Amino acid sequence: MTFPLSCRLVNHMVHYTQKYRPHAALAALLFTAALGQAHVGPHPSVHDTVAGIVDRFRKTIPQTELIAMDAAKAKSLLTEKELNTLATEHVTFRVNVPVKVIIIRDAAMGDKPFWLKERGFAPMGFKITIQGTETDFWMKDFEAGRIGLGVNSLTGGDAHYIVALMPLTKETKLEVTELYPGQLRVGALKDGLQPFVDRPEAMPELPVLPGILSGLTVIRTQYESRDDAKLINLFHNTNHPARPKPDQIILTWSGDPQTTQTIQWRTGTGVAKGQVQWVKKSAYNRFQPARPKRAKAGTFKMEDANLLNDPIVHRHTVTLTGLEPDTTYLYSVGDGSDDGWSEMAEFTTAPGRTEPFSFVYMGDAQNGLYRWGSLVQGAFRQRPDAAFYIMAGDLVNRGNERDDWDSLFHNARGIYDRRPVVPAIGNHENQGGHPGLYLQMFDLPKNGPEKVEPERAYTFKYSNAEFFVLDSNLTPESQTAWLENALKTSTATWKFAVYHHPAYSSKPERDNPGIREQWTPLFDKYHVDMALQGHDHAYLRTYPMKDQKKAGSTAEGTVYIVSVSGTKFYEQDPREYIEFGMTNVSTFQVLDIQISGNRLVYRSYDADGKLRDNLIIEK
């Protein structure tokens, strides 16, 4: 269930009393309001409580039982104090007048949240269908003062419930204060509201609202807080545990692609250090090979305590510098011992002058990574000349769980150790509110906005092209000034923007107006050729767009792409900006930059290598 949404009333309870009919109208029209999470001052911490529970479970319950545990069993093992914290301290705020608190949730959640009935919330007696999801409504009156609401569930993964506040008196204006967590925001029900502070989607145009909705207040919450009390399916085993021998060898760029190459890999904890040895391919002779150079790696411990069979691994990173442009190097990684090296692989630095090149772009891999593995391996076989691979976010489904990353890298083996991967952050990397594992997995350029965490947004140049990688999980405003300066100073012939949430959406009833309002005017002003996006899981290519309208040609406007490379698909609405669209198809895109005539040849292929879409742009 996602918000914002348009809604229609599908089922009123036959004997719904006249007393509550106004609230039914309210709820039916106000669903796009978002829930806030709030707390203030000294209070029991849900996060600390959950951490204590998880630690106790891990120490006292056998692994097989941990993996098989259901919600009822987990709840039965909680203390009264823990239950009270989880039922009252997830979302807190203070109101100055009595209010009716309305909890709006996916009806399929059944008895979740566990505290709803226990705390006296009563069903309002009707259900509505919102974006194909049947939702129901629960309400309870509260006096003025501090109000605390509980966690979404003990299982995680459900759509977060929504909270709306209706004042029970008109004499005094409702004020909501002391919000916790502090990033929550109070808003009013209106067109363009973004219900979640950590998601850019906004509500579509609303119908005319009845007078009963006057005074309605919405607390904008974090969508990802739905997993704050996840106790079920929390413990995992990885199918690809670390070994002493290096694996998950990947290439990225943290410096100039012409003269540097960053290499990362993984080992088990028994290997405490790492090295890279490398040599020019042209200097390698099997009978009299040149002596390779060596560089020491930086090594750190990566921990995922909930990964029962492989909780700690070592990750190693080296950035080679002083390389020659347009040169192929052979390399291997290891611990420096004679038998601790990986198999030899190779990389090629970017050209030092304008040369033709190709690259691969993919949208969300996320689900069915073994199937995605077949697609990316096919892309590599079909276009071995591609210089690097762009992934526009949602590389994995569970961004803070390492076994998903283990699967991604296992399925990309033999590719990302030979061709650099250029990632953007999707909402699934941001699972839990921060892309912690993502930032540990990849070493990326640190030339982004000064007030944005390094490596979340960055830019790099390759031949006569420049790429502007953005983090659409953050507010667009946080990157706008930096983006404008980067575009203004760019001398590249070809400009590409890479980010996750699309400026022009594909999935029905999704929209990201903040991105469209903040970034697309800059794409227009400085003529970005293409925006490479993900998130909506249905392929589309827009007409060239300028000023949010169809432009006369690609010379005047930007082409926006939405692509999906995994196995999760959405429907697609016909929209006036779509020149070509399709659903239920995994694709990879190859972009060929041709110097002769300054042409960009864009092709989209399915998993069988069949051409599905193509476009030529000429300067």
Care to describe what's here?
The chain is α+β, with helices and mostly antiparallel strands. Helix content is 17%, strand content 30%. The protein has 12 helices and 33 strands. The strands form 7 sheets. It has a 7-stranded antiparallel sheet, covered by helices on one side. Strand 4 and strand 5 form a beta hairpin. Helix 7 runs parallel beside helix 8. The radius of gyration is 26 Å and the shape is globular. The N terminus is likely disordered.
Give a concise summary:
The protein is α+β, with helices and mostly antiparallel strands. Helix content is 17%, strand content 30%.
Instruction: Please give the alpha-carbon distance between the first and last residues.
Output: 43 Å
Which shape, going by the Cα principal axes?
A: globular
Strand content: 25-35%
What is the number of helices?
12
**Extended strand count:** 33
- Regions with little confidence, pLDDT below 50 for 5+ residues: 1-41, 204-210
Largest β-sheet summary:
7 strands, antiparallel
Mean pLDDT across the residues is 88
Taking strands numbered 1, 2, ... along the chain, how are they ordered across the largest sheet? Answer: 1-4-5-3-7-10-9
